[in-house]
């Protein structure tokens, strides 16, 4: 389906982080098929991870998008990866949801993402 998806990560929770949240440099990378984009590093805010950024990615026929939560400060180390159901986004035009991120089948955190479908103009 033509159009774009706008991903706006709002907040992240990292489970059992060995580093202090303030020492992390987390980014989100969103991918739909071969199209992708990434955020700037999140800002630490009173022990929480918050973004004031968004990513716009072109749509294709994929039914899921992937999101990777990475620590930019440690050579792009992946904290976790999750999936976003694009069919649900298309049906509702917009979705705000906590997405579990996994590393080797273990939940390593969650990302609160605002996802919106933008039809072609």
Overview of the structural elements:
- 6% of the residues lie in helices and 60% in strands.
- By secondary structure, it is mainly beta.
- It is globular.
What does the secondary structure layout of this molecule look like, with pairings?
Layout: E1 4-14, E2 26-32, E3 35-38, E4 43-45, E5 48-50, E6 55-58, E7 64-71, E8 77-85, H1 86-92, E9 94-103, E10 106-118
Antiparallel strand pairs: 1-5, 1-6, 1-10, 2-3, 2-7, 4-5, 7-8, 9-10
Summarize the entry for a quick read:
The protein contains one helix and ten strands.
End-to-end distance, in Å? Answer: 13 Å
What's the total helix number? 1
Binned, the helix content reads under 10%
- Unreliable runs, pLDDT <50, ≥5 residues? none
How many runs of DSSP E, i.e. beta strands?
10
Specify the CATH architecture: Sandwich
Q: Structurally, how many domains make up the residues?
A: 1
> Can you write the helix and strand succession as a string?
EEEEEEEEHEE
Derived from helix and strand composition plus strand pairing, the structural class reads mainly beta
What do the pLDDT scores average to? 88
The CATH class is identified as Mainly Beta
Under CATH, the topology can be stated as Immunoglobulin-like
Radius of gyration: 14 Å
Q: What is the CATH homology-level superfamily?
A: C2 domain
> Largest beta sheet, briefly?
6 strands, antiparallel
List keywords for this structure.
121 residues, mainly beta, 1 helix, 6% helix, globular
């Amino acid at each position: 389906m033509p159009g774009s998806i706008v991903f706006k990560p709002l907040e992240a929770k990292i489970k059992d982080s060995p580093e202090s949240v303030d020492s992390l440099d987390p980014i989100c990378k969103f991918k739909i098929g071969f199209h992708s984009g990434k955020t700037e590093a999140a800002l630490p805010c009173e022990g929480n991870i918050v973004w004031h950024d968004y990513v716009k990615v072109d749509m294709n026929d994929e039914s899921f998008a992937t999101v990777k939560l990475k620590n930019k400060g440690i050579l792009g180390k992946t904290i976790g990866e999750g999936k976003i159901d694009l069919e649900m986004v298309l049906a509702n035009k917009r979705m705000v949801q906590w997405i579990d991120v996994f590393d080797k089948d273990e939940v390593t955190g969650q990302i609160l993402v605002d996802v919106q479908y933008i039809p072609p103009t």
